[in-house]
Amino acid sequence: MTTLTEAPRLTRQERYLRTVDALSHKRDREIDSTVRALMSLLGELRGRALDRLGGLPERNGTIRPEALGDARAIADALAADFGRRLAAIVRVGQTHMWDRGQLFLPAALWSIGIGRVPPPSLQEAEPKVNVGLERDPNDVDFAFPLIVSPAQVAAAQELTGEYITAVSQTFRERFRQAVVRNVTGQITLSELYSITRNLLSSQPGRTGNVVADAERIVRTELLRSFSEAAELRSAELAAQVSGMKKYWRSARDGRVRLAHISADQRYSEKPIPANAYFEVGGEKMLAPRIGGSARNVVNCRCVRVDWHPRWGQ
User: Fold this and answer.
1) Cβ of 290: how many Cβ atoms within 10 Å?
2) Neighbouring C-alpha atoms within 13 Å toward the C-beta of 103
3) Which residue in 93, 96, 99, 103 sits closest to 19, CA to CA?
4) Which residues of the chain have pLDDT under 70?
């Protein structure tokens, strides 16, 4: 049996990758907390929708025709509120993920003794792989300047707004259609309530559609903001240090798509120049979620890993 003191000492690259994974997991946990906020919003809207429908005049299991305008107004008001509040949730998350993306590379490099100032996010990373590590005076010496992010974040939010409008309108139209079907006697009031609950269910995948679309927007857009900031950091590093390489690292769990597992295996063995393109599933991508179609981007949790041959010596 191997004791802790007999365990092999981590190489510098292993220490670096351990920090990369720890920071990636922290990023994903923070995105999960944003998704939980989304689910709370959907639960609140579901209760409001059912309460307001229950207050409309009805006869024999259907809403009275004269109340059709009021029922449609309920759908319009809930959809508008859904869009506004979902946009606010995503906006806060995007800004936070941009900051995480800015700190990701400096924190990972600091863990192996590279850089001048320790990034604050490293103090939150687990495990503490940099404890007791001294700066190497012969190593690459550089400092990351601060990135002015509002312009990039604003551009990302403008695109995200289009997605949010689309999912809000999907909810509105499906809700209104269900109301009309009830008024015309095609479905009962209890069936209308069931449709409403399912439209705003907090269990994505059971009915798909609105909830699954909203969750996909939150996860994908937050990860996109993270990637864009991290990619700018990587470009800064490549401009200061010649001979930089990069490779693709997946989340390495049961949810990784096959094309990304293949990219992880291929580029881990043979890193490519920092400004070259990865080929992933037949598509060229600068980094995870940078370039590529939806099949390579949506819900992708992979990261780009920057590396220089000198750092492993």
Assistant:
1) 17
2) 20
3) 103
4) 1-8, 116-159, 202-209, 313
CA gap 221, 215 in Å, rounded:
10
Rounded to whole angstroms, what are the CA distances from 248 to 209, 256, 260, 265, 274?
A: 31, 13, 8, 8, 11
Bond into 65 cis (ω within 30)? no
The sign of the dihedral angle between the CA atoms of 45, 48, 53, 54 is: positive
Q: How far is CA 75 from CA 61, 161, 187, 194, 253, in A?
A: 19, 20, 17, 15, 40
pLDDT of residue 11: 85
Look at residue 160 and give its three-state secondary structure.
helix
Contacts of 177 (CB under 8 A, 6+ apart): none
| Separation between Cα atoms, residue 166 and residue 56, nearest integer Å | 28
Question: What is the pLDDT, as a whole number, of residue 147?
Answer: 57
Residues facing residue 303 across a β-bridge: 249
Give the residue extent of every domain in the chain: 12-241, 243-313
CB atoms within 10 A of CB 276: 12
